[in-house]
Amino acid sequence: MNKQRAAPIEMKADEFRAIGHHLLDRIADFLDSLPTRPVTKGEAPPAIREALDSNRIISDLGTDPAKLIDRAADLLFDHSLFNSHPRFWGYVTAPAAPIGLLGDLLASAVNQNTGAWFLSPMASEIEAQTVRWIAELLGFPTTCGGLLVSGGNMANIVCFLAARQAKAGWDARVAGLHGGETKQLRIYCSKETHTWVQKAADMCGVGTDAIRWIPTGKDLSMDTVQLQNQIRADKEAGDRPFIVIGTGGSVGTGAIDNLPKIAKICRAEDLWFHVDGAYGGLAAMLPDASPELRALSEADSVAVDPHKWLYAPLEAGCALVRDPEKLRDAFAYHPPYFRFGVEAINYLDYGPQNSRGFRALKVWLALQQVGRKGYEQMLADDIRLAGELYELVAKQPELEAFTHSLSIATFRYVPPDLKSGSEETEEYLNQLNTELLTRLQNSGEAYISNAVIDGKFCLRACIVNFRTSLADIEALPEIVSRIGREVDKEMRTETVGHV
User: Fold this and answer.
1) 250 contacts 92 by C-beta, under 8 angstroms
2) What confidence score (pLDDT) does residue 55 get?
3) Cα–Cα 20 to 30 A to 325, which of 112, 167, 399, 487?
4) Distance of CA 445 to the CA centre of its chain
5) Torsion of the alpha carbons at 411, 413, 419 and 421, rounded to the nearest 10
């Protein structure tokens, strides 16, 4: 073997520089072209697999990296759903801030393992500072513990595990779920809560039957009277309530629970108060944020997603826990092969991962580029645009407006000659709007999703998009109405044809 190793995966500096410069030029052109592209081509899986040549086997010999990068760019630019498009309002996924793209490249270049401080000294300190800044934006104590994770599901699950260890009444990590007792742990959340709670109950061994789904009022917020009654009934039955989950902006409609009241109940009943603010929590930074949302500052833990309303590239969720020791209690182990010390934060003690990528850099950079005022402006703009859409829909005779909260507006298409109300009509409208949504999504003209409100299938536009303009919003009602007319005509023709 030669003393100087020649690894086939290595690149010389000049080659790396040339390929990198070319790729950056292509990315810049791609971002600039987004408004002129369809949001998606609506291709079916076979077409995607054909473009990829998915059945091709791996070659024995390598390929020129410049050609590989160009082909990868072609595949992604020509066959993707673009959540960075100005008319993407489907899910709570924001366009990636350009500085975040560069941050991810830099983070990958240094390739730090942020599980332990001495493996990533500067990266760990940047993450700690980022966590403090996010807490500061929310009005949450900056002395809290926290870390960056993959997204809202994992941020909520991290907090859930901290709550289980803190409030189970025994050492659940050592003794398991019952710890010699037979009491059933109980979880409380509204019927609007995201499905992460089911995943958490399942993964943590508590079981989904432990969840108490509390009804909501007309505003889709949790009924706190029924919450209190359920907690007391469960205690009388010998169960052990341990966590109440408040929603700081539901993903369906942007509904906000009465967080001040829930906080009061949790203090009185000695329960862990967690807020799922993955979507809406960051709106608590706004000067005109509601008292209901701002009360997330009273929680024992909060989950937010920088890759939603801080516009960070995926992946970036954030778990915040008021008492940092509660995170250590839930996750820290110290086997003999770990010699990391405790003089600084070792993030493997704060969450489920040992090996962790440097997610914080892209968030840290954007927070400094934009500042608090810049984020306040962008979030307020998104909320105003959703309000504009709601008003435009309400004026359109073929559209029925349902809800507007935070940056989400819901509505549906109703043919002018139909009046909603009867069971038969409602079933038809649900089918009509379901098909309408499928065609709209595949059309590439705009991309929205759905919500189900009181059994009614609604169209849902969620604006967390700094590229969206008023002109984009003004175009949507007519697009929906046009497709709605086409679908309605076809469905009625089919019905007549089958008579």
Assistant:
1) no
2) 94
3) 112
4) 23
5) -50
pLDDT of residue 499: 33
CA-wise closest residue to 460 among 193, 84, 92, 90: 90
Tell the burial category of 21 from Cβ atoms under 10 Å away from its Cβ (0-12, 13-18, 19+): exposed
Residue 140 belongs to domain spanning: 112-357
What is the number of domains present in the chain? 3
Closest CA to 399 of 414, 389, 385, 409: 414
Do both 386 and 351 map to the same domain? no
Question: Do 216 and 249 share a structural domain?
Answer: yes
DSSP 8-state symbol, 445: S
Co-location of 457 and 317 in the same domain: no
Same domain, 231 and 306: yes
β 301-304/399-405 pair status: unpaired
pLDDT band, very low/low/confident/very high, at 498 (cuts 50, 70, 90): very low
Using N-to-C axis directions, what is the helix angle for 423-443 and 470-497, rounded to 10°? 120
DSSP secondary structure letter of residue 61: S
Structure-block tokens of residue 128: 């700690």
Specify the DSSP element, H or E, that contains 147: strand 145-149
Please calculate the CA angle 457-459-464 and round it to the nearest 5 degrees.
140
Whether 306 and 424 share a structural domain: no
Region 284-291 average pLDDT? 97
Is the model's pLDDT at 442 over the cut of 70? yes
3-state secondary structure 358-404: CCHHHHHHHHHHHHHHHHHHHHHHHHHHHHHHHHHHHHCCCEEEEEE
Report yes or no: 295 and 309 within 8 Å, Cβ to Cβ: no
Residue with tokens 């969720």: 317
Residues 425 and 468 in one domain: yes
Report pLDDT for 497: 47
Classify the C-alpha dihedral 159-163-166-171 as positive or negative.
Answer: negative
Q: Are residues 387 and 302 in the same domain?
A: no
Q: What digits encode the pLDDT tens for the residues 109-131?
A: 999 999 999 999 999 999 999 99
107 within domain boundaries = no
- pTM, two decimals, is 0.93
